[in-house]
Design goal:
It is built from 10 helices and no strands. It has about 190 residues and is mostly helical. It is globular and about 50 Å long.
Length: about 190
Amino acid sequence: MEAFLISTGIVGLAEIGDKTQLLAFLLAAKFRKPLPIVLAIFVATVANHAFAAAVGAWITSMLGPDVLRWVLGVSFLAMAAWTLIPDKLDEDETKLAKYGVFLTTLIAFFMAEMGDKTQVATVALAARYHDIVSVVLGTTFGMMLANVPAVYLGDRIANRVPLRLVHGIAALVFAVLGVATLLGAGAALGF
């Protein structure tokens, strides 16, 4: 349960103001068909995060515990810094409209998520918790918590959410995980 909750919280916070959330806003404004957009975001996220979690599990099997601890600790600290950098959306990610709402969203969202901070976080979380299913469920739930309101409520939310504060909280969570991991506090703290 802890892997699910931590994964949900980290990805949910990291996703606010992320380029994939900006993409969700744009797709919702362009197509005005929220259900196929939300379904495509879900499918793209499950596929992307399942792949990322598999990579995390593979990394765990390849590295010894001490090396893994350092890799994860530094990764979480890097994620803390990365979270503080504002995202911008590439123009190519919105030029797929000829494929219809669902397929356009699926392709654009999957591609935008490749190498994104939430995908990297999923790799690190899967390596940390050794529970791929809970991590993928948690990261997917976190993505949906951040993106479904973006699709349905769009600008009404964007104007009220202080992105700098949310990014600061997400960065703090990543930093705490990084420091705790580097100090070997994982066993005592559950990560």
